[in-house]
Design brief:
InterPro entries (chain B): AAA+_ATPase, ABC_SmlMolc_Importer, ABC_transporter-like_ATP-bd, ABC_transporter-like_CS, Mo/tungstate-bd_C_term_dom, P-loop_NTPase, Sulph_transpt1, TOBE-like
Helix content of chain A: over 70%
Order of helices and strands of chain D: HHHHHHHHHHHHHH
Keywords (chain B): ATP-binding, Cell membrane, Membrane, Nucleotide-binding, Sulfate transport, Translocase, Transport
Distance between the termini of chain A: 23 Å
Number of strands of chain D: 0
Order of helices and strands of chain A: HHHHHHHHHHHHHH
Largest interface: A-D, 106 and 105 residues
Protein name (chain B): Sulfate transport system ATP-binding protein
Organism (chain B): Vreelandella arcis
Number of helices of chain A: 14
Number of strands of chain A: 0
Chains: A mainly alpha (275), B alpha+beta (364), C alpha/beta (336), D mainly alpha (284)
CATH superfamily of chain A: MetI-like
Largest sheet of chain A: none
Oligomer: heterotetramer
Radius of gyration of chain A: 23 Å
Radius of gyration of chain D: 22 Å
CATH topology of chain A: MetI-like fold
Number of domains of chain A: 1
Distance between the termini of chain D: 10 Å
Structural class of chain A: mainly alpha
Number of domains of chain D: 1
Structural class of chain D: mainly alpha
CATH superfamily of chain D: MetI-like
Strand content of chain D: under 5%
CATH architecture of chain D: Orthogonal Bundle
CATH class of chain D: Mainly Alpha
GO molecular function (chain B): ABC-type sulfate transporter activity; ATP binding; ATP hydrolysis activity
CATH class of chain A: Mainly Alpha
Shape of chain A: globular
Chain lengths: 275, 364, 336, 284
């Protein structure tokens, strides 16, 4: 079998160019992070990581991610089901609306939440009179994190569910399955890898969000400091090694994400090959 | 342009897709490659086209187009026309642009003027009766229309060899019939050498000057449709070319016995399997001295000029199929559940290939 | 205790894990100090000392938490609901903004000594080894071959002080001739090679990236940088004329009341004026008022003519309006 | 295929869950996405049209649009070429380390922007690994708009790769073969047959990369010199307005970015829909 661009020279040239450019452009920064983090030895790295405030930041960051995922999951599945299984006026608008978080600069995302839920905002002011504080506390961080991460699951599911069509679900319904059973037994097995991929992306973004969170967090060490914020503070405090130690932790989460994703894809490819 | 293949073999990984094959196709001939899926027919066609390379074996194979050795010539320089199974039309181009593509990619030196391209494309579109569809996109055409565009596209570069991969596979029966006749007509008119791949024996027999029957990467037989049908080289060819009824039993004193059925045959003692075509079965109300084959009618379906009758009996592992003319059908007053006697008009046996040939039964 | 805090603590405890004994859970009262970006190390020293002192005096365990950010961003956060009990800023205007919003008492500058500034500093230069460009005063910065680094006055209080100091110098030099002052300022601003958003960013540009001939920042900051990055490679130049940079502190009364921390907040700010705290501050290269400490550190702080914003520009609000607001003098000077 | 699915689902509501999924989706979109944006317009309501116009057309702000759009355009174009190359290599060729390269493509999505920012600044500053080398051949990256474009390109490259890749994967081998059998050389076949197929995906990916670049802040701010009129990005202008307690001004500039981004996204969606319809049959 021959394809266009299979000539050995072209092939070798393109592969070399791609590998070289990605190496310089994508891999080198990754290497630099770890090089900087360990530039003063493992013990310095370790003491930075095991610092109380760093541990607290890790805990908070993970908690926010853990709370964000189920919310985005429910929304993503509901929206994907809605726009791929039904036709109704406004379907395309709905699909564009979920892209808003992509279009909004993270700083602006933080700002709009602050304007609404801050003490001077009309909801925030009302809540304040009941002594409920959302901004500059973890609920605020959670809210903006949900805002910036909510499209990921839906965006993974929609193309897949569109391509699969609804024939299988219709078959299940004709066989007398209830809605929930249809979803659980027919839809879910078909979309689970995409779903997992969406979760992985959501998690990566939730863990790493900086711009939006920095606006609503208040950055109180040991209280509302997430790992990316903590990183920035360390960087500002001339503690480059500490900053890069945090960066290395975040990069490690990123790498785990990539590994999980590659694993999923590999599995999916293998299932296809044996199907 | 004649095509000559010499010692061509191909394997993918550990599977031998083609055993070393040699084949001569004469200039102006229309040859069908017939075989079940996995027989290597498509691979052979793609090797002729240059879409696959033959194995480089100790005795290197050769492909000659006329006198020209094209073994190592790239597909784009072989000057062939290739019609793909699913047409492979360029979806983003109009019908006109699809047909013109081959001409517009010629090097400046060989490229006809744009006026000439236009004229030639319209001539082709006229030929495939699609001149009014020039500005449509492939997605707006029916399957048969797409196939005709695909053919016009392949013919635009005036190839000396036209290769077609299951050209009518995805079309419905009526369109297929029409296109077949039309292709035959086109071939006779333009007089190029054509090779096409099919798994439909009817198509191969109807369309081809000669048919190459293939199985398991080997050529089983090359012959004209008539010769093929009349004198199949082996059991595989016989079975592949049409419906077959089997009669298996012990021969003793020139009588083949199978349960309560028996038939007089001129064969030595031993185990035998006889094969016969549906039209070689005659049905009567009573047995004869020669044959005593009691059967029961289980289904009757009139198909075209004849009536197909399905027969079952205790002594048959597989039901038989008999075809009778309408007059005979009326004469015998055939009905489902009726008990009759079958008489072979003619039968065959392929003793040498019993163990080798794959089991091929065509009941429908 | 507000619902949100209870929730926050229980969930955080959950998140951080039971193995990590969180002091926030164990203690009753917690004071939140909202401060400017570069004061993290400073308050990391002061707070434990205050906590120990308070326990000794009152037999009560308290915890002081810190929130750091750009001084303006911090003020904004408080207005939007960050429940800081006290502010320790590097700009008077940012406290004034809170006062305007009713979050700080109107007469906050009279509430504590020295205009409620327990310590102060000025703007100074950090140059590279042996001062190759011979930079001694502000007028050396407008030479053609000098590359200047300081943070963006639009986003940084630190940068604003630098701008005002340069203006103040020019004002004296040209005897108030507006046209000459503006020419001077225009050249000065044109010599800036990087406008980082904050003081620490500017430091990184100057030190780590090796950009520019001179970094302008607080005197305290340039001294800290020099000791951090090697006294052999850099020199500190304190110009003969510069600006008085006050570091104002105030109690955010509504928040302190709500948190039941009014006494604690007041004591915390007063604690900054105590002799040992002042010594600690001087150790961080801040200028202080406590006489014994001033004498002790006399060598460290050269005599400088410190201009007051109020004297040169009338008042802080006036300076802000004329120079830094959208369409103000800064925009005019940078326009092309 | 997808058209088919859409058409089917349109005819009747055979499947359950319309009300529930509609309820969840609309509630979520209203509360999480739309309600906060009303806050933005609430701020804008305090401005007269003339004031609004004055803020968004102020010289320095306009200069920041130019810088942002220019750098984002350069980044998007570079990504279009680079992303196409990567997608092509990843789909069409087998080579050792391919899976690794494939996984690496998602790094910019997975890596927090702040981490990307400080890392790129460290690498490409005159004293960094890349910067010192580039400076030797006369290219300054950090603190110039090249740095801005670089940071934008870094954060948005996956958009191009990941939108082009599946389309390239789905392209049947017969398309290549048909072009070759008709005598087209690699170059001609790529330009006239493959590119038109990839075009919608490439434009979509590049468009998404462009939109993402317009809003990027965290990764850029460390490497941009932030010089007025030269290397100030629009996100920084919003940040500056915030520093000045000028919420209305910040909201005004933010609204411009928001409108432009949303308009671009909508345009991409509509354009892509048209293109896909043509390829899959206009009557569907």
């Amino acid at each position: 079998m021959q394809r266009i661009g299979d000539a050995p020279l072209v092939r070798r040239l393109l592969i070399t160019a791609a590998v070289l450019l990605s190496g310089l452009f994508l891999l080198l920064p990754l290497v630099a992070i770890f090089a900087q983090a360990f530039s003063q030895g493992v013990s310095v790295f370790w003491s930075n990581v095991s610092d109380y405030y760093t541990l607290h930041a890790i805990g908070l960051t993970l908690m926010i991610a853990l709370l964000t995922i189920p919310v985005c999951l429910v929304f993503g599945v509901a929206l994907a089901w809605l726009v791929t299984r039904f036709d109704f006026p406004g379907r395309r608008l709905l699909q564009t609306l979920i892209d808003i978080p992509f279009a909004v600069s993270p700083v602006v995302a933080g700002l709009i939440y602050l304007l609404l839920y801050g003490r001077n905002g009309w909801i925030g002011g009302w809540l304040d009179s009941y002594d409920i504080q959302l901004m500059f506390a973890w609920p605020g961080i959670l809210m903006v994190t949900i805002f910036v991460t909510c499209p990921f699951v839906a965006r993974e599911l929609i193309p897949l569910m569109q391509a699969q069509g609804s024939r299988e679900e219709e078959a299940a319904v004709t066989l007398g399955a209830s809605g929930w059973t249809t979803f659980r037994r027919v839809t879910l097995p078909n979309i689970r890898w995409a779903l997992l991929y969406g979760i992985i992306l959501t998690n990566a973004r939730a863990v790493g969000e900086f711009g939006a969170v920095s606006v609503v967090s208040g950055a109180i060490r040991g209280q509302t400091n997430t790992l990316p914020l903590h990183l920035e503070q360390l960087y500002q405090d001339y503690n480059a090694v500490g900053a890069f130690a945090c960066a290395a932790l975040l990069a490690l989460i990123a790498l785990l994400t990539l590994a999980a994703k590659a694993g999923l894809e590999w599995r999916a490819a293998r299932r296809e090959a044996f199907a | 342009m004649s095509i000559r293949l010499d010692n061509i073999a191909k394997h993918f990984g550990n599977t031998q897709a083609l055993e070393p094959i040699s084949l001569d196709i004469n200039e102006g001939e229309l040859v069908g490659l017939l075989g079940p899926s996995g027989s290597g027919k498509t691979t052979l066609l793609r090797i002729i086209a240059g879409l696959e390379n033959a194995d480089r074996t100790a005795q290197p194979g050769k492909i000659l187009f006329g006198e020209r050795d094209v073994t190592h010539v790239h597909v784009r320089d072989r000057r062939i026309g290739f019609v793909f199974q699913n047409y492979a039309l360029f979806r983003h181009m109009s019908v006109y642009d699809n047909v013109a593509f081959g001409l517009t990619v010629l090097s400046r030196k060989h490229r006809p003027s744009s006026g000439e391209i236009r004229a030639r494309v319209y001539r082709l579109l006229e030929m495939v009766k699609l001149e009014s569809f020039a500005n449509r996109y492939p997605a707006q055409l029916s399957g048969g229309q797409q196939q005709r565009v695909s053919l016009a596209r392949a013919l635009a570069v005036e190839p000396e060899v036209l290769l077609l991969d299951e050209p009518f596979g995805a079309l419905d029966a009526k369109v297929r019939q029409e296109l077949r006749r039309w292709l035959r007509h086109l071939h006779d008119e333009l007089n190029f050498t054509s090779v096409f791949v099919t798994h439909d024996q009817e198509e191969a027999l109807e369309l081809s000057d000669r048919v190459v029957v293939m199985s398991n990467g080997r050529i089983e037989q090359i012959d004209t449709p008539d010769a093929l049908y009349r004198s199949p080289a082996n059991r595989f060819v016989f079975e592949f070319l049409g419906d077959v009824n089997h009669l298996e039993g012990k021969v003793n004193n020139a009588v083949l016995t199978c349960g309560d059925a028996h038939l007089h045959v001129d064969l030595p003692d031993g185990h035998e399997e006889l094969l016969l075509r549906p039209h070689e079965v005659r049905l009567t109300q009573a047995p004869t001295a020669e044959s005593h084959l009691p059967v029961t009618i289980t289904a009757i379906s009139p198909v075209g000029a004849e009536v197909r009758v399905e027969l079952e009996a205790d002594w048959l592992a597989q039901p038989w199929l008999a075809t009778v003319r309408h007059t005979d059908f009326e004469h015998l007053e055939l009905q489902r559940g009726q008990r009759l006697y079958a008489h072979p008009r003619h039968w065959r046996r392929f003793p040498e290939s019993v163990s080798k040939a794959p089991e091929q039964r065509h009941v429908a | 205790m507000p619902l949100s805090i209870v929730l926050r603590r229980s969930l955080l405890a959950l998140a951080v894990g039971a193995t990590l004994s969180s002091p926030a859970v164990a203690q009753e009262r917690e004071l939140l100090n909202s401060s400017y970006d570069i004061a993290r190390e400073l308050f990391a020293e002061i707070n434990p000392k205050f906590e120990a002192w308070w326990e000794e005096e009152h037999g009560e365990q308290v915890e002081v938490s810190q929130s750091h950010g750009g001084s303006s961003a911090q003020a904004r956060a408080i207005m939007q609901g960050l429940r800081a009990d006290v502010v320790t800023f590097n700009q008077v205007t940012d406290v004034n903004v809170l006062a305007d919003a009713g979050l700080v008492d109107e007469d906050w500058q009279q509430a504590l000594d020295n205009n409620a500034s327990p310590y102060y500093s000025t703007t100074a230069f950090l140059v590279r080894k042996d001062n190759p460009k011979g930079i001694e005063n502000w007028d050396d910065l407008v030479n053609e071959d000098v590359e200047v680094v300081f943070p963006n006055p639009k986003t940084s209080g630190n940068g604003r002080y630098t701008y005002l100091a340069a203006w103040g110098f020019a004002d004296e030099q040209f005897d108030g001739d507006e046209e000459q002052i503006q020419d001077f300022m225009r050249t000065f601003l044109a010599n800036v090679v990087v406008f980082d958003t904050g003081g620490r960013g500017a430091t990184t540009s100057f030190i780590e990236r090796g950009i520019g001939d001179v970094l302008i920042s607080f005197e305290s900051e340039v001294n800290n940088i020099r000791s951090e990055y090697g006294s052999d490679d850099y020199e500190v130049i304190v110009p003969p004329t510069s600006i008085l940079a006050e570091f104002p502190v105030a109690v955010v009364s509504p928040n302190a009341e709500r948190n039941g921390n009014t006494d604690l907040a007041q004591s915390y700010l007063e604690y900054l004026y105590r002799e040992d705290t002042q010594r600690l501050l001087a150790g961080f290269n801040y200028r202080v008022h406590h006489e014994a400490v001033v004498d002790e550190f006399a060598d460290q702080f050269p005599d400088t003519d410190l201009l007051k914003v109020e004297d040169v520009f009338g008042s802080w609000p006036e300076a802000m309006e004329t120079h830094f607001e959208g369409g103000g003098m800064l925009d005019k000077l940078q326009r092309r | 295929m997808s058209q088919f699915a859409l058409r089917r689902s349109g005819s009747t509501r055979v499947l359950p869950g319309f009300g529930l999924s509609m309820g969840i989706s609309v509630l979520f979109i209203s509360l999480v996405l739309l309600l906060p944006i009303t806050g933005l317009f609430g701020q804008l309501a305090g401005l007269s049209l003339a004031e609004y116009w004055a803020i968004i057309t102020e010289g320095r702000v306009v200069a920041s649009y130019m810088v942002t759009i220019g750098a984002a355009a350069v980044a998007a174009l570079v990504n279009a070429v680079f992303g196409l190359l990567l997608a092509w290599v990843l789909v069409r060729y087998e080579f050792p380390g391919k899976r690794l390269l494939d996984a690496l493509m998602d790094l910019p999505f997975a890596l927090p922007t702040a981490v990307a920012g400080i890392t790129l600044a460290t690498l490409y500053a005159g004293s960094g690994w890349m910067g010192s080398w580039l400076e030797a051949i006369g290219i300054n990256v950090a603190y110039t708009w090249v740095g801005i474009a670089l940071a934008m390109a870094f954060t948005s490259i996956p958009f191009v790769v990941r939108t082009v890749q599946p389309v390239l994967e789905d392209m049947p081998v017969e398309v290549d073969e048909a072009a070759m059998s008709l005598g087209a050389t690699d170059g001609v076949a790529f330009r006239r047959v493959i590119m038109p197929h990839l075009w919608p995906a490439l434009v979509t990916g590049t468009g998404l990369a462009f939109v993402r670049s317009l809003g990027e802040f965290g990764a850029i701010i460390f490497i941009a010199g932030n010089m007025p009129y030269e290397t100030e990005i629009t996100a920084l202008m919003i940040f500056v307005k915030l520093q000045e307690y000028d919420y209305a001004g910040a909201s005004a500039i933010a609204s411009v970015v928001l409108f432009v981004s949303l308009a671009l996204l909508l345009a991409i969606n509509i354009w892509q829909g048209r293109f896909v319809r043509r390829l899959h049959g206009g009557n569907a």
